[in-house]
Structure formats: C-alpha cells, structure tokens
Design a protein that fits this description.
The structure is a single chain. The protein is of the alpha/beta class. The protein has one domain: NAD(P)-binding Rossmann-like Domain (Rossmann fold, 3-Layer(aba) Sandwich), CATH 3.40.50.720. The chain contains 10 helices and 9 strands. Helix 4 runs parallel beside helix 5.
Length: 267
C-alpha cells in the first residue's frame, strides 16, 4: 500500500553530513528513508528521530558499492510504497596518499559509490518526480571538485564528475518543478578523515573544520533559493575562486605541494 506522502531518501545517513541532513529535515517534519551499511547506527538514529518528531522514519541497511544495490534500493522503495520526493546522494568515501598506495578494488568501489550510484539513483527516482512536476535532488560533491587534487586523485576526480553531472542536470530540469543542487563541502567535522586514513586531521588542519550541521544549513538555504551549486564555508569559496584566477599549471603545482605536505607518502 502506498503511503501517499513524500519521503526524503538520504544515502550514507548513519553519521556525518547524512545524519545532519536527517536531523535537520526531521525537525521540520520531513518523512525520511535512511540508508547506509551500518544497520545498528541507522536504527539508533531512527529511534532518536522518532522520539523527537512525529514523522515516519524508514531505514534500509544496504551496501551501495554492490553492483545491483541502487536498483534494489529503488525497487524496495517501490515495493513498500515509499514515494521519494527528495533524493540526497550523500554516501561516499575517499583515500588519502599516493595513487599507488591503495588497491584497485578500493578505487573501483570509490568511483562506484561517489559517481555511479548517484547517477543510477537519480535516473531511477527522477521519472516519478518529473511525472508529478515536483521534487528535489541534492548531490554531495566536494570543494575538491574544483581542481585536480594530487594525493587525493581519484576522490577529487569522482567529485568533479559529480559536480559536472549535477549542474548539467539542473539545467535540463529548469522549468520542470525539480530542484537540483550540488553541495560542495570542504573539510568537515565528520568521520571522513578517520575512514580515509588521517585520524588526526582535525588537529593538524591549517583551517578550522566546519560542522556537518553548518554544511547542511547552507545546503538547505541554497535549495530554498533555487540555486544549483553551493560551496559550504567562506574559506572554501575563496579557495575555489582562487583556482579559477590562477593559471592552471600554477594551481596544480601549488595543490601538489600542499597535498604532499599533508597526505603524501607517509599518509
């Protein structure tokens, strides 16, 4: 049986920016579908949200790096009658260090989760939004999308792809009632750096890290303004501007020097 309500589907929802999206949207009454690999963390978040807010919160524990996972997620939502009115493609991961430091399997999974899965889910859920003439899609890219990122090469490339895809899709969806936003956070206070292999990044970072809540607030404000791209944090906006003003070769050399110092062969 169809619920006949619009849910917000958030991938990578168990912690970090995904969980911050869930808390912010629950607070304003958005029904939620939360998915991530960590079923226990999802259930804890579901109980927290439902204890605080009178909304339905559904969870699906799923590893989106598996080849058929996006289709299974879409099919399961359809089978259960969960209509998705907003899609937030947040799941993703990175690996720091020289390119040869990590395995082929790691990189293939990264490309799939950061790039292929958002395209798959967008293609699967967008037709229903278009048929109803309303909906929203937020793809979480990165400030790393604006220039090549040595020692973070594959991650940066996936986010550049996601940014380009999202902005192109936003232009295609103009006038359809579908809002499409690329969110580009910089360094954010989440478990991303620990999972990527830099456990003490927050202590050594030359810039203060944004909170996940601040990033989400900027994203939702930009969505409400009808924007297609938002770079979270004024420092990150300045850095993105700098990459456009400097000659490309100079930008690449500077990026390599900075990233080598932070995440080079010892990362």
């Amino acid at each position: 049986m169809t619920d006949m309500i619009d849910y917000t589907l958030i991938t990578g929802a168990s912690r970090g920016i995904g969980a911050a999206f869930a808390r912010r949207l629950a607070a304003v009454g958005n029904p939620l579908i939360l998915t991530a690999r960590d079923g226990e963390a999802l259930e804890a978040l579901r109980q927290e949200l439902m204890a605080r807010h009178p909304i339905p919160v559904r969870t699906l524990s799923l590893d989106l790096t598996q080849p058929d996972a996006a289709r299974r997620l879409h099919a399961e939502c359809g089978r259960r009658g969960w209509r998705v009115g907003m899609l937030i493609n947040n799941a993703g991961f990175g690996r720091f260090g020289e390119f040869l430091r990590h395995s082929v399997d790691d990189y293939v999974s990264m490309i799939r989760l950061n790039g292929t899965v958002p395209v798959e889910l967008t293609r699967l859920f967008l037709p229903d939004m278009r048929a109803r003439g309303q909906g929203a899609i937020i793809n979480v890219a990165s400030s790393a999308a604006f220039q090549p990122t040595p020692y973070l090469a594959v991650y940066g490339a996936t986010k550049a792809f996601l940014l380009s895809f999202t902005e192109a899709l936003a232009a295609e969806c103009a006038g359809t009632g579908i809002q499409v936003l690329a969110l580009c956070p910089g360094a954010t206070r989440t478990e991303f750096f620990v999972n990527a292999g830099i456990a003490d990044f927050e202590k050594t970072s030359p810039m203060p890290l944004q909170s996940a809540e601040a990033v989400v607030d900027e994203a939702l404000r930009a969505l409400g303004q009808g924007r297609h791209r938002v770079i979270a944090g004024w420092r990150n906006r300045l850095m993105a501007l700098g990459t456009r003003l400097l000659p490309h070769g100079q930008t690449l050399k500077l990026s390599a020097r900075v990233m080598r110092r932070w995440f080079g062969s010892d990362a």
